[in-house]
Design a protein that fits this description.
The protein has helices at about 1-15, 20-85, 100-115, 115-175, 180-245, 250-280. The protein contains 6 helices and no strands. It starts with a helix and ends with a helix. The relative contact order is 0.07.
């Protein structure tokens, strides 16, 4: 029975015209080509989508890094400026490290988005700035003490000047009325001399305070320059790695040499200023 059915199917296929077979084969070939073409297009589309997603992620990372890196560099400049202004601060009212918080915050953000090498360099730089605050405290204490002595002497000097002004006004009233009281006038004159002596004393103390402040401030600035020079050597590789992360490569060795040259010029100018202050 099965043999008869198979024979019947074969006879049926033989009865189909060649034109039909050729059309059927052509359709199959065309369909296969379309199928293979769709597979190729799908593969290319997946590759394109993957590439686009990678490029967009890369662009987002680059934009984020650019913002964070530029902010870190800006805060680094502010940090250096803050350190040089420490002698002018009142440690009883201000935390000396407050001026570095912007840099510490920016550096922490940078470590989240930076390349591993850049992140490690910035982490070390942040730690060194923290250590520098404690190192500078030793030189800063006599500066702040001198500043406080100046404020105290100036406060008392101002009070004595006010008292002198009051005594002179009282003496002027006595003379203007034309009926001076010798006892009162002598008492006022004695008070006037006493306040003058106090004014001279506080004036000398204030001058001595300024002398000490200037001397200790110069010592502080000199030591600060030494410490900043050490840190500046760490800042240079950080700047180089930041440029590399941002794709701003160029001739990095030339840029590094230029940074060192700029620091040398600044150091020479500072030494000239210190020398001029010493002579004066």
């Amino acid at each position: 029975m099965c043999s008869l059915q198979l024979t019947a199917i074969v006879e049926l296929l033989k009865s189909i015209p060649d034109v039909v077979w050729s059309g059927l084969i052509a359709s199959i070939i065309t369909l296969s080509g379309v199928f293979l073409s769709n597979i190729g297009n799908t593969k290319r589309l997946k590759l394109q989508l993957t590439h686009d997603a990678f490029e967009k992620a890369k662009e987002r990372t680059a934009n984020l890094r650019r913002e964070v890196y530029l902010r870190t560099v800006e805060e680094l400049v502010k940090a250096n400026s803050h350190l040089s202004s420490l002698p002018q601060l009142d440690i009883t009212k201000t935390n000396l490290a407050d001026g570095l918080q912007g840099f510490f915050t920016a550096a922490a953000r940078l470590q989240l988005v930076a390349e591993p090498k850049t992140s490690l360099l910035v982490c070390q730089l942040s730690a060194d700035y923290g250590d520098l605050i404690f190192k500078l405290m030793t030189d800063l204490v006599p500066v702040i003490k001198a500043k406080k002595d100046i404020e105290i002497a100036d406060e008392f000097y101002t009070k004595t000047q006010s008292e002198i002004t009051r005594v002179l006004a009282e003496q002027r009233k006595i003379n203007e009325f034309g009926n001076p009281n010798p006892i009162v006038f002598d008492a006022l004159q004695s008070r006037f001399k006493h306040e003058q002596e106090l004014a001279a004393k506080f004036s000398n103390e204030r001058n001595e305070g300024w002398k000490c402040f200037n001397e200790f401030n110069i010592i502080f600035q000199k030591n600060l320059l030494i410490e900043l020079r050490k840190i500046s050597l760490e800042q240079i590789p950080v700047m180089i790695e930041i440029r590399r992360d941002l794709g701003l490569t160029g001739d990095l060795s030339e840029i590094e040499a230029l940074m060192k040259q700029q620091w040398s010029r600044m150091e020479a100018n500072f030494e000239a200023l210190i020398s001029a202050l010493d002579k004066s």
